[in-house]
Write a structure and sequence with these properties.
439 residues; alpha+beta; 5-stranded antiparallel sheet; 9 helices; 12 strands; 18% strand; rod-shaped
Length: 439
């Protein structure tokens, strides 16, 4: 049963049934107590009136003999001899106790009131079951209106539930109208307080979806634009290679084609890496890593690039610095930072990679002796495919965008500052590790 309307209807009807049952029980006990008092009063008054008048007149005898009456009058002499009974009865009390008394006669309880007058004992008796029957009838009469009105109440409750839940239907209809081309926010005016938080959460989700789809469209458009140029260049280089007749010209064309293929392959790898670490990508499965050891391994792979430009690579920090993260992703982050430093540092320049723990915060610095980045441009260099016009180095403009994506996945922050070496310092501040070693 998943319908809120049906649940509400059944719960309210159950409440009505419980209320009717409680009302019937209270009415039964109340009426029973009232009938006890009332019938006791009637028994007493009838016995006292017969005592006071001294005898039973013929008209009274006929009236008391009416079988529709639920009580019986008996009179005994002082020595216990029965001299009068208002009407025949198969089971009657055979003795009298002065005042009120309950007598059990053949498993039936009689309520009696007896009084003595001169040489006679007058008793007025009534079965207890009569009183219980009256109480039950009164209780049933009190809940009968609820039983009669229950179907009408069920219809009214069903209608009220539909009216109350109508805003949910409106919200559901609005969500069904949204698609990838129309992710506008749902209206929030005139919403019940219980539904408004749900609509606000849906609007936030729609906004995130819109941003994700816009980012995806922009990424695809930018990737297509960036791939068009190297692919066009590869086509031209292929034609040059086909038209080259001399050995030297063919060798140069082959070298140019190979270089173009390498650049295109690197661009594709960068695009794939960026896609893996974009917002909304699957979460990483972190483990405890030694950031200093990871930096040492990455730098060892990049030494040939630095040597080719006659640059000096230096790593500072031998003490293990632990972070929680994905080894492949953090290796790519460090590789991109050091690769950027190598590309932008001049020939014969200096590059330093420092791993330290400052105030309990694992930190990584990459410094170079290049031209640096002006403060007004530092916020833009993390944009995809952004390349500074003043730089002469080749690149896809994706390195720092990938760095930012990986850092966000690891809860780290990226900061750009002036380097003590004269160029740019890129700093990453990681959160303190939460995992135990070996996890």
């Amino acid at each position: 049963m998943t319908s809120i309307r049906l649940r509400l209807l059944l719960m309210l009807l159950a409440m009505l049934a419980v209320a009717a049952l409680l009302m019937g029980l209270v009415a039964y006990r109340t009426v029973l107590a009232e009938t006890e008092t009332l019938f006791d009063y009637q028994l007493r008054q009838m016995a006292l009136s017969l005592r006071d008048q001294g005898e039973i007149r013929p008209d009274q005898a006929r009236a008391l003999n009416n079988e529709e009456l639920d009580f019986v009058v008996q009179i005994w002499t002082a020595d216990g001899r029965s001299i009068y009974a208002s009407r025949p009865h198969s089971v009657l009390p055979a003795r009298a106790l002065l005042g009120f008394a309950d007598l059990n006669v053949q498993s039936e309880i009689w309520r009696t009131f007896s009084v003595i007058s001169n040489d006679r004992v007058i008793q007025v008796a009534q079965p207890r079951r009569i009183r219980r029957q009256l109480a039950t009838e009164a209780a049933l009469n009190s809940i009968a209106p609820l039983v009669i009105v229950a179907p009408l109440l069920a219809i009214v409750i069903w209608w009220l539930a539909a009216m109350i839940l109508r805003p949910l239907s409106v919200v559901a209809a609005g969500v069904r109208k949204r698609d990838a081309r129309s992710l506008i926010a749902l209206p929030t005016q005139d919403l019940p307080d219980e539904i408004a938080p749900l609509v606000r959460a849906l609007n936030e989700l729609l906004q995130r979806l819109r941003q994700a789809l816009d980012g995806q469209r922009a990424f695809i458009a930018d990737a297509a634009h960036e791939l068009r140029s190297p692919l066009t260049a590869l086509k031209l280089q292929m034609k040059v290679l086909e038209q080259a007749d001399e050995h030297d010209a063919r060798s140069q064309a082959q070298a140019a084609l190979g270089s173009g293929i390498d650049r295109t392959a690197r661009l594709v790898e960068q695009l794939l890496a960026l896609a893996r670490h974009e917002p909304g990508a699957p979460p990483i499965a972190p483990s405890r890593l030694d950031l200093a050891e990871l930096a040492r391994s990455v730098m060892a792979d990049l030494v040939p690039l630095a040597v080719a430009k006659k640059q000096s690579l230096q790593r500072n920090g031998e003490t293990p610095v632990f972070v929680d993260g994905d080894e492949a992703a953090l290796s790519l982050l460090i590789r991109n930072l050091v690769d950027n430093a190598i590309r932008h540092a001049p020939a014969g320049g200096w590059i330093e990679l420092t791993v330290e723990e400052a105030g309990g915060t694992p930190t990584l610095h990459v410094d170079d002796a290049g031209a640096g980045i002006p403060a007004e441009e530092r916020s833009r260099v993390f944009d995809r495919f952004y390349r500074r016009h003043s730089t002469e180095t080749e690149g896809s403009g994706l390195g720092l965008a990938i760095v930012r994506g990986i850092a966000e996945q690891h809860g780290a922050s990226v900061r750009l500052d002036d380097s003590p070496l004269g160029g740019l310092r890129v700093s990453l501040l990681f959160p303190a590790p939460q995992f135990t070693p070996g996890s």
